[in-house]
Structures are given as C-alpha cells and as structure tokens.
Give the backbone structure.
Amino acid sequence: MKDTATESTTRPRNPVRGALASFDALTLTCAGVLALLTLAAVAGPLAGVGGDPTAIVGPRLAPPSAEYPLGTDSLGRSLLPRVIEGVGTTLVVSAVAVLCTAVISTAGGIVAGYHGGAVNGVVMRIGDVLYAFPAIILAILVASVVGPGRTAALVSIVLVTVPLMTRMVGAAARLVCVRDYVTAARISGVSAPRIMVRHVLTNVSGTVAVQTTYALSVAILVEGGLSFLGYGVQLPASSLGLLIQEGTVYMVKAPWALLAPSVILVLAIVAINVIGDSLRDRFEPRKARSL
Amino acid sequence: MTKRLAVASTALVLLVPLAACGADPGPAADPAAEEEPGYLAVADTSLEGTGTLRVHLDYDTAEAAGLDPRSADVARSWSLMGLSYDTLVEVGPDFEFLPSLAESWRTPDPTTYVFTLRDDAVFSNGRPMTARDVRRSLEHLLESESTWAAQLGPVESVEETGEHEVTVRLEHPHTAFLGALANTPAGILPMEEVDGGSVDLTAEMVGTGPYVATEHIQDESWTFEVNEHYWGEPPAVERLEISIVADEFNRAAALRDGSADFAYFNNIDTLDQLEAEPAARVVFQENTDFYYLILNSANPGSPLADDRVRFAVNAAVDRNQLSELALGGHARPTGVAPATLPDACPAGELPSALLDDDEIAEILEEAGVTEVELSLVTFNSETAPGQIAQVVQQQLAGHGLSVDIDIVDDASFGAALYSGSTATDDMGVSWYAGYGDASMVSRWWNTDTAAFTADFMVGDPAVNDLVVQAGRTPRGPEREAVIADLCAAVDERSEVVPLVTRPSVIGYRTDAVSPTLHSVEGYGDILRNITDFRLVSS
C-alpha cells in the first residue's frame, strides 16, 4: 500500500487546483453558474445560439418546445437568443459600470485614507450625499437628466455603488496608513503617490475585490430595475430587466416569458453574493468568523 | 447575505413563477363579440341600482389648454368635457347622426343646415339654452381658429332663424360638417355668461350635459355629480369618481381588486392580466384611429426621398402580420379612409398590396437601393408603436433594408418629427384619430392645410385635390369613388402610410356596472353612453 500522505506532500502542487480546493462546494457551484452565464453571453451570439434575437420566427407567445427552448415573446421572437442577449447586455453594462466604480472608489478611498483630515472629510461627505438618495430614485433622476438608455444605466450604477465602496476602501486605507512600514516610507522621503500605489493599494486590494463583487450584484439589480421601469436599456435591445418587464404583461398567459429572465437574474445575483462572501472570508477572515 | 439565505431565496424565486405556470384562468368570452349589432355591450335595463361609478383613465385633459372645449384636442378631454357639454348632434353606433340638442335638422340644399333646437335644454346654472347660445357657440369656435374650427369647415354664416332654430350656411358642401358638430369641441356653451364675463370657460364647465364637475385635481382625479337641470332621463350613475392612473398595471390591479369599476387600457394584452378575475370583463373596442408609418420624403439626403423607394418600403410592410403580432390580431389593416368607417377602402386592394416580393426587389434595384440602413423613431408612452416598429424592422429586413429603431419619450418624438425643421429620421410610427368621417382624418394628407406635416412630407397637388374633393362630395357612390382614388393616391405617394387601426381595451366589473359601449368609436369617447349605464347595486 502506498503512503498517500507522503506522496501528496512530495508531489508538486497544482496552484489552480489548490486555489479551487480552498473554496467550498456552494462557492464553486456559484462560480460555475456565473462562468456559464458569462460564456453564454459571450459565445452565444457568436455561435448564433437560438438564432437572431430580433427575428420573428414563430407565433406570438408560443410555449417552450424543441424549436423554441424558452418559448416565444409577444412578437413571435424566440426567447432563447433574446435572453442570451439580455444576459450579455446586463453583464456588460454592470461590469463596465463596476469597473468605473472600482477605479473611482479605490482612488478616492486611498487618497482620503492616506491624507485624512479635510481631504478625507470632503471625499466622505460627497459619498454621504450620494448615499442619502435611495438607489432607484437616484437612478431615475440620472435617467431623467441624461435620457433613458445604457448611458443612464451605467452612470446610475456608478453613482449608486461608488459611495459604499469608497467608504470601505477608505476605512481599509486608513488602517494601512498607520502601519509602521508606511510611516517608515514617509520618513524615508518616499513620495505620496508611490506610497499609495506601492504600499496602500496592494494592502487594500482584498477589500477592493470583495466590494467589487458586491457592487456587481447591486449593479445588476439597478440595471434590471431601471430597465424594468423604462429608464434603462431600450427596445429593441434586450436586457434582463427589460425582458422581465415585458414578461410581467404575459405572466398569466405565458409565464415562460417571465420565468427565464427572472431566474437568471436571481441566479446571477445570488452567485455573485456567495462568491463575494467567500472572498470576504478569504481576505477579511476576522470579520467573517461565526460564533 | 448568508449562504443559507441565498439558497432559500433562490428556491423561492424559482417556485413562484412555476406556481404561475399552474394557474388556470379558465375560458374567457370573446372580447370582440357584439351583444347587439353595433354594440359591444348593452346595459341591462332591469338593473335598478344608482350611485357612484369609479372610473380609471390613463391621462387627464391637457392642463395648458384649460377646460375650454374649443381647444380640446385629445380623446380624454373630449370624454371628460363631454360629460358636461352636449353637442347639437351625436354619433350613433354605425356613424349615423342622431339628435341631441338639435332635436331635428334638414338640409334644403348641400350648403344649408337648419337645426331645430330642443326647448327643454337647460345649462347647469339653471338658465335655459337659447338659439343665441348655439349661434354664438359656433361663432366662438370658428373665431378660435383651433384644429376643430378647421374641421367644422367653410362656415359662411350662422343665424338665429327662429326661437328654437339656427341655420348654418357653408361656402361649399362639407360632408364632414355633422361629424365635426358631433364632437365635444363643438359643444354648446353658455354664451350669454361667457360674453358677459361671468363664466370663464378655461376654469369651469357650465353645459347642458348630464354631469357637473364638482372637483378636479389636475392629473389626479375628477368628481362629477348629476346635473339637476339635465334635459334627459336622470342617469343611474349619480356620481362619477374618475382617477387618472398613468400606469397600465395599476389600472388593471384596481379593476382586479375592485377599487375601480370601469377602466381604459392601451395594451391589447391587458386581457391576459384580468382573465383570472371572474368579475372583470374586458372588451376590445374598435376605433377609427389608426397607426401610420412616416416615410420621410422631405429630407433630400434620405433614400426615402425617392418615390420608388418609399413605395417599395410601403409594399414590403405586411399589415396583416402587423395586426397579428403587434396588436394580437385585434386591428384591421387600413388605408387613409379608416377601415372601421362606412366609406373605408379595402387595404388589400391598395396598389402596394398588389406587389409581390420580386416586384419590390425590382423597384429597389431600379432605384439603386439594395442594402441601406434607415432610421425609425417612435414613442414609448404606449406599447404598440414600439411593437409595430420592431415588426416593420423585421419585414423590411426581408428585403435587405436595415432599420435602426429609436424608441423615445413623447417630447423627444415630437422634437424628432414636429420641430419645424426638416426631420432627419427616415421613418416614424405614430397614430391619428380617425373621427367620424373619412374626410376628417384625410385632411392631414393635404399639405396645403396640414402645416405640421411639412417636416417629413413634401406632398402632392393631386393628393391635395382628392382630399378636397372627398371633403365636398356628398355621401354616396360618387364619394366612394373619390375616396377609393384618394386611398390609392396616398398609397402610391407613400409619404405617410396608414397601417392598422388602433383598438382600445375597456375593462369593467360585471358586479358593479352594466355599460353600453359602441363596437366602433370615432372620437375615443369611452364614456359616450354614460347616461345609459346601469349599476348593479346602490
């Protein structure tokens, strides 16, 4: 009989497998769901899965069948390619917006945390003002100013997600900035930008990663809400919120029109939140410890 | 969020729609079936209830125009003001004209109308209506130079020719004259008080109609009480509480939960939301209103400046499919004479309907247009225009024409097509009110008089002449021929292409009200027969 314990310690370890093994099954399942949705959104249109999302191919409100796996909508378009397009639109708008949020919040949070005092006060008060608006009200306000559409959704998501992320990154940056190595760097005459990038940014990256995942789930919700209310993505394009809005009209007669986009929206948000929880456990273990 | 919560909430969301899948709404009555010829619903006269009817409408009278009926130019204004103002004649279910404040009339020649007035009509302030009120009301409308003054036609004179008689003389025959008199903007006003300055028409409504407005909160609500001086039978609906509820879902919810008795809907699929409510009945009312497709001939840079391309695009539009997909099969393909009016011209016989795909391709090839991208703008305050735009997009794609759709709010739509300068969008989707006579809506194809179309329409003198002829030729075979020529000419020009009629959806609770509803409505007045409505209980 082989000594497996000895063998495992001697064999070179696969870093990817090792990283995956450190997450629980639920997290891995959620990551799989998210990967699948992303793959569908990216590869689906390229491979022509379900056909042209704008093409009228069958009777209106036909139930799911082999020909139309998710049924057809009120104009006789197959829902499968429309849902795939909707997932892509929602993920792209949300991801781009969250990327902007991450950049703005990380920069703002680190600058506020490093300088403290008045600079911190100004950055945090701007955040407080934005934070005071309920998310959807702020989003509607933006949409009414810039006009309904993807730009409105994008700007709204950024404004909704920036305050919380800036506050969290700022708090993390303040903790890092009082560490001895930062003090030492200052005394040694290292420039502030270099300290912020070299020492502070690298030590708040975990917080940024965790907050980015949470911001992504908020972004998907805001995009969905705005499109549902008619302020976000506009027809004939599709997004999950827009498809849900269309589906509600036919909730009784054709529930499949509501079912697919609703389930996908929930799955995406739950998956992202579970992944965010796991990342938080990884990067901020003390906060996540349960009794 | 904890992971347990995540799993539980996911499961819940997955189960809720599945539960909806299992709901069986049961069979529904045909919502377009007539109870009697010309009537979708006829009030049950055995019901003896009296009291309040709660009505939910989609929008209010226009605030800027005030309450002066002369300047009322939208259907809800006509409905709401029509509760207080009567007209000389009214429209019957087959678009025949019926007595109202004029108990009879005669036309000794095609340009003279002699109206014999009721002697028992009294304004809500208690003063009897006189021939002077009628004369001055019509003069007052003509002086206003409003849209409806133009519909009234070439009125030469209005005279009091007896204690209860008024004679109107026209410069030339105007077939739509009675049709124009039958709508609220031609309502009879208390002109003695108006001329004397004691009644401000923009702020109050003093008419001879069945109701008096007792409260109005703009864009929120109206309350009407019975006019104690009303000349007709006292209506069973003694009080009308009208709520302005912009959101379609909220109106449907109100009808479902019983907080509304009667409601109007724009979306043809609203029926589906109310199927499961046994007390709710939804009916499809046909209108003379119709959707149209603008093919911009005024922009020299557009491929549609070429007559041949516009005609080919028109021919590529399948109106039957439009009705089926965008309006659930409840709309009728139409030409410029609304398909729901007696003088309609069959859409299937229009020149564009006779072309097959190969002929369309040939025309486009001849015009040098094989692959082109066109822009189309429409508005989002109703569902159907966006749906129509998307179906048109697909129909044109089958002919190698790519359409980029922009669905915008009403203000942006107006700015795109009615700004006063040449429109840059190639196409647009909107709708016209069809009124009660084919020559009324066809006026908008006469570029000599319809200035608002100049941004997207060059016009054609031959079409303008036919519009004028249709307006002057008395009803009969000769007029039918003129209208057929007009329909064909408009179709061949293809500058503004009539598509399909615009049906309405009316919902009501059978445990609250038994209404009378015409099968076809010309002026969007869903409360037209309110005095015939019966209530189930007091």
